[in-house]
Amino acid sequence: MPNIRLVGTMTPAVEDYLKTIFLLSTRGEAVTTSALARELHVSSPSVSAMMKRLSDGRLVERETGVHLTAQGEREALRVVRRHRLLETFLARVLGMPWDEVHVEAELLEHALSERLEARIDAALGHPTRDPHGDPIPPAAGAHDESWGRSLAGTPAGSRFRVERVSDRDSDALRYLGEKGVRPGVVLEVGEQEPYGGSCRVLLGGEPLALGQVLTHLVFGTVVEGDA
Amino acid sequence: MPNIRLVGTMTPAVEDYLKTIFLLSTRGEAVTTSALARELHVSSPSVSAMMKRLSDGRLVERETGVHLTAQGEREALRVVRRHRLLETFLARVLGMPWDEVHVEAELLEHALSERLEARIDAALGHPTRDPHGDPIPPAAGAHDESWGRSLAGTPAGSRFRVERVSDRDSDALRYLGEKGVRPGVVLEVGEQEPYGGSCRVLLGGEPLALGQVLTHLVFGTVVEGDA
DNA sequence: GCCGGATGTTAGGCACGTCTAATTCATCCG
DNA sequence: CGGATGAATTAGACGTGCCTAACATCCGGC
Ligand SMILES: [Mn+2]
Ligand SMILES: [Mn+2]
Ligand SMILES: [Mn+2]
Ligand SMILES: [Mn+2]
Question: Is residue A220 within a helix (H) or strand (E), and if so which, with residue range?
Fold first, then answer.
């Protein structure tokens, strides 16, 4: 039989493109050819070609920029779910540090069967957050990917509860982990030193200086309550 | 820079071919084009093409049939090690039944980093056998892949200790598991019923009839000792 | 001794996923 | 207005890994 054309064929590359489109848009960034090329470390023509394929397969639509169809988003969420379940598993079960799990999950997410995914999910007690505080999309049902506010620009005097830490910069992640900046922690936000200086915070009473790069990686909410 | 030619590039396909060549030869079977095609579910020309590539890359040599070079065997053993470590992990840590782990490991073995492999190995306490009794090649050093003798043809009256059960037939494996035929178990071998009939055995005193297909999947040694 | 079947190779083709080079197009700036 | 700049696409190529069709070989049986 001569090559039945399955439009929805998921390959590792297709999964990575869909996931990246999803993550870019939930970060509020424009999903352009060049943004995808930068993010995926491929050339622009590679992205153009893939967008053609995804568009033919009804996984994305192209008007100004690119956006996922309902089906494309479903597939993207499945990949994101596998990725974050794997990160959680690697950290909790194998004790892998939170700055290493992302790279591993990038590979494994394409090799995880539904059966194994379900087993991992059950073994972890159906977790809702990965080690970085990223929400794990449920197997079925709605998903909320909101990022809260960035620590950068949060006014001095606020009490700030960390909810998510971006897992994209492994070195920064390790540093933050060493300093105790993790989801769930509450920071007392102090002075933002001018001209690109550090942001002074208190963590459990201890002073800590967080550079610009770091404050842009930390997300959460301002909480009221007793100092 | 125009395509540096890395001869030893491992891809999932290359890994599968090397692994299959290794397993065929350790099973004492001839490593021919058609045997590989059958084993890997690909056409003969696909095998021919791949043998050309592996041969160019000094991973195999071709005289009568095909055999691995020292480097090819090293790579094959790395894949087999990852496969069996993964099977062990899936069974022990995630409680996956022994007839399901092989299929999962087939995929995951290509996505396992050295770092994660080491973590899994340590978490399991450096196991030497997978759930089917297959020996796990060490990260470095010699490996013994001998199969012992098959239960088929073992004379009645023998006491037979099961050491390995082939993991290639998932249904048979589940059946044997249900009946308690696992590595470590000792069987009292009874009559082989003629003309392709069952082999009668006692397992823990309980009678059990094992068809031809099954006795050819069970390997071990004849042990002396008290009945 | 020849024929048929099994085995293996060559030839040609295709989907995937990437690349570089060239082109198109809009925009911004002097 | 016109040229530079940047973003995107088109054109052409390539390696991987698979396929089918055709051809070459060898080997056993009649
Ligand atoms: Mn991640
Ligand atoms: Mn994460
Ligand atoms: Mn196996
Ligand atoms: Mn096994």
Answer: strand A218-223
